[in-house]
Amino acid sequence: MRGSSMTDIGAFNEKLVLQTIRSAPDGIGQAEVVRRSQLSRQAVSLIARRLLADGLVEQAGTRISGPGKPHTLLRVVADARLAIGVHLDPAHIAVVICDLAARPVARTTLAPPTEDPRADLERVAGAIAELSRSLGASGPVPGEGEAVLSTHRRLLGIGIAAPAGLDADAGILRNPPWIPGWRDVPVVDALSAVTGLPATLDKDTNAALTGEIWTRHLDAAQTILYLYVGHGVGSAVSGGGRVHRGGSTQAGEIGHLPIGRADRICSCGRHGCQSLYTDAHVLVAAAREAGIAMSGKVGTTAALHALATAAADGSEAARAIIGSHASALGEAILILAGVHDPQRIIIGGPTWPALRDVGEAEVRRVLGDWLEDTAGVLESSHLGDDVGAIGAASLFLEQELAPGTGAPVGT
Ligand SMILES: [Zn+2]
C-alpha cells in the first residue's frame, strides 16, 4: 500500500460522509447521514455541499417520512470517478475499469504472465490506455457544470492483485511461486510511471475479499472468512471492515495446512497438506486419469471447464472428482472457522465458478454441524470470473475513499 493522496476528498469526515451515502444506493436523507456518521449537522451539510459541487453525489428526489417537510435524498454518482483493476493470475491477466460501486464499465483479458515481466507490464499499460480511450469516446459523464470530467480526470488510480509472494508496502512482487518469472518486480512503480496514476498492490485473496465488502456494503462489524479458489487455495479474513494482512502480506497462506488426511505426503515433509487435494492441477490430473474428455493438450482453465461441463452433463466420475476437491476444501474451512470464528464464509476465486454447482453443496455438508451451531452464513461469491480484477479496483477505491480506522475529527 503505497502513499498516494486524493486531495479533492482527503479529510476523514468527508470520506465518512461519502461512505455513509454510498452504503445507501437508493438515496439517503441528510438527517440519516448525521445519525449514522455521528458527525454534526453543520459538518454533514458542509461536506454534502462540497460532494455535490464535486459531482461525487447527486440529489435523488425527496422522501416524505412523518410530519414536516419532505427531505432531499442524496446518492453517490457511481461513474463520477473510476478505478482500474489489474489481476495478475497464472491463467491470464485481467484488466477492468470500475465505477465507484466497483462495477466494471470496461474490461479486457490478456494472455498469462510470461517470463518477461517488462513486456507483460507494457501489455498491461497498453490495455489500460485502450480501455480509457474506449470510455473517453463515449463522451463526458453526465452532470452539471464543473462536475463534468474527462475520463482521464475521472481515473483515480490502479489496484493490482497478484498471487502470494509479494511485498504490499513496497509494491513489489518478490517471488510469487505461481508466476515464476517475476522476481523482485516493482509493479506499483512501473505501472505508475507509464500511466501517471497512483497504484497499490495486494494479494489476490485480499483483493477478492475487499471487492466483496466494497460491492455489497457488508456489515463492517462482522468477521468474514474468504476462500480464494484459483490455481491454489488461499484464504483471507476481515474484521471491522478491514482485511488482516499480517506482517509480511503472508496471512492466509494455507497451502500447507494439514487437513487431517494421511494418504498423501507433501514436499514439505508432512502428510495431508491442503494443497495436495485442492490445487487446480490436482483436479485436472484426476480428470485426465478418469478419462474425462479433454481434447489434446489444453490449459488448466479449459480443462476445468471441460470437467465442469462433464459434471453438469451427469458424469458421475466428474462429480466425484469435484466433490472430493470440495470435501478437502470443506475440511480446511472447518479448521479456519475454528481459528477465526467468522459470521460469514465466502468462497470465490477464478476457479470456483466452474466448481460451485457441485462443490458448494459438498462444502456445506462438511460444515453442517458448524453452520447449525453458529448460525454462520456460507455462500459463494457473486463476483464471478472477474473477482480478482474487480477486487483489485476495490483495493484502490478502499484505500482512497474509505475513512479508515482513525477517529472522526472536528465533529
Ligand atoms: Zn505441505
Automatic annotation (TrEMBL):
Entry's Gene Ontology molecular function annotations: kinase activity
Q: Which UniProt keywords apply?
A: Kinase, Transferase
Q: Which family does it belong to?
A: Belongs to the ROK (NagC/XylR) family.
By what name is this protein known? Answer: NBD/HSP70 family sugar kinase
